[in-house]
Amino acid sequence: IAGITQAPTSQILAAGRRMTLRCTQDMRHNAMYWYRQDLGLGLRLIHYSNTAGTTGKGEVPDGYSVSRANTDDFPLTLASAVPSQTSVYFCASSSGGADTQYFGPGTRLTVL
Amino acid sequence: GQNIDQPTEMTATEGAIVQINCTYQTSGFNGLFWYQQHAGEAPTFLSYNVLDGLEEKGRFSSFLSRSKGYSYLLLKELQMKDSASYLCAVVDSNYQLIWGAGTKLIIKP
After folding, report:
1. Which has the closest alpha carbon to A86: A6, A11, A7?
2. What does the angle CA A107 – CA A43 – CA B26 come to, to the nearest 5 degrees?
3. Distance between CA B39 and CA B22 in Å, rounded?
């Protein structure tokens, strides 16, 4: 059982380029989340999905979009990357509500 | 606004005990999590408290006082592998996690 996987592990991207970060879970969790983690700051929620077919905006959604076509996958897209989007991105999943969130290994993204 | 406060960094000695504090002000409260995060890795679940009191799990214990907006994580018999960041997170009224910036714990031999 893999749990939750993310791809790529790391990426260097030119500003203005489009990029999709992939996230897949095999735990049949209803809820999935995208966070970014920056030095000195707590994890910040970008977007979330409480169930397949629905998505919602978190604390820092601008410049990012998500889709949830099925239970397992929750891709995050940067339509036109900017240097301020340089960060470590974590995908997480849970059964929903206040249940424990389980994290993927993260994607380290650098936008130049 | 919503706010989670925890110390930025703490240092302790191998074999000792350390207490990491977390205070919070959030819109609603549906529980508090502690996660451990080693450098370059993902956060991993340690504990969850929703009722006042102490929850013990091996060498780690977590305490919650909802009236004081306060929690602590207690680590006993410290080992070098406990060197990591410890993240406090509160479940708010929308069932979203509000995260503290984390406490970096340095263990010295």
Report:
1. A11
2. 160
3. 21
Angstrom distance (rounded) from CA A70 to CA A26: 12
Residue in A with minimal Cα distance to B43: A103
- In the predicted structure, residue A2 carries a pLDDT above the cut 90: no
Give residues 8 to 37 of A whose Cβ lies within 8 Å of B. Answer: none
pLDDT, residue B39, reads: 95
Nearest to B44 by CA among B82, B90, B86: B86
- Chain A residues inside the 8 Å CB shell of B98: 42
**Are the beta carbons of B46 and B36 closer than 8 angstroms?**
yes
- Report pLDDT for B1: 74
Residues of chain B where predicted confidence (pLDDT) is lower than 50: none
Distance CA A84, CA B99 (A): 20
Give pLDDT, residue A1: 56
User: B3-5 and B18-25: which strand pairing?
Assistant: antiparallel
- Split at pLDDT 50, 70, 90, the class of A78 is very high
